[in-house]
Structures are given as structure tokens and as C-alpha cells.
Amino acid sequence: MSSPAATSTVRIARWTPGGCVWCGSTDSIEDYRNEPRCGLCREQEAIIDEAKHFIGMYGLRPLGGTLASDDEEEREFRVTARDAREVLNRIRLEKLPDPAAVRKALRPRAAAAVAAPRTSSASSTSTAAPAKSAATKKSQAGVSGIDVIELEARVQKLLAQLTSVDEQISALDGAQGLPARARMKDLEKQRTTVLTTLAALEKARRRTS
Description:
Elements (H helix, E strand, L loop, with lengths): L3 H5 L21 E2 L4 E2 L1 H19 L14 H20 L7 H16 L3 H55 L5 H31 L1
Antiparallel strand pairs: 1-2
């Protein structure tokens, strides 16, 4: 007999209506980007989306194969996004379902929503709309405030890094030998990267002001 742990990791090989379109799981299914996705897939996608938001906000190099980063915070986002992508690739169905079949499976739920009493729908809409509007404005204001704080904190960290690099370059000034020249070349690359990132952050700061 196989253990419970072993059976829980068996990969679902085929999609069935109502299941997750990515891995086939039927656990905690909710609509995600207009298609049914399970809780695990939504969680991994959210991690990747958060990393993309961070990368885009600071104008950094897009997510890819390399984990090269300017600081630990950026590296953490890149590592978690890579791990999330590995999870998604590992649980991916061998054959993804036909989009037409997925839409057909969603029709009963859509029909049930349309068949709901109009009065109930109208009343819920009238009460929910103001709350939703207020929540949206509050959320946008909060995100804007957090972004500005993050921008300033990141700029300060990069300025401190730039000062450190400049000090090391000054210490190596006039030094001879291959190790010294190699170290100088590496420091100059770091300095260029920091200056480029600072320029990108300045553009981001102007967009939020």
C-alpha cells in the first residue's frame, strides 16, 4: 500500500470540467483571468505577478534565467518568482484543455448568474457600488503611498552602495597587477549598474509625483 503522502503527490494527467485548467486539480477552484484555477496555481501566479510589479516599478531587468540583482530585496523577488515558475512547470498538465471546452464548462455557472432575480442583483449592486468605489480609491492611494516610500528607501540603499563602490575604486587607484585591474573592472561595472538603476528610479519617482 502506498502512503498518504505518496498519493497526495500523484500528478493529475487529464483535465475534467470544473478542474484547474493548468494542473487539473479540483481543490479550491476560483476564476483567475477568466478561467478556473486551483488555490496552488493562483498562489504561484500571484508570487510571479508581485515580482513583475516590483521589477516594472523600478525599471529593472525583466525576470528571466539570471538571478543577478542590485540588492538582496531584488534578488528575493527574483528567487521566489523562479521557484513559483518551477512549481507551475512541475504540476502542468501534459496536455492543456481546449479553450472551447473550458468556456463550455463555464456556461452553466454564467447562466445561473444571469438567471438570478433582477431585484436582488440591483439592490446588491446599489449597495456595493459606493463601497467598492471607496475601497478602490483607498487602495489606489495606499499603493501610491507605499510605492513612494519604497522608492525613497531603495534610492537611499543604492546611494550608500554607490558611496561604498567609489571608496573601493579610490583605494585601488594606481594599483598594479591583474587582480587589481580585474577588481577595478568589476567595481566600475557595479557603479554603472547602480547609476542606471538610480536613473530608472528617478523616472519612477517623477511618475508618482
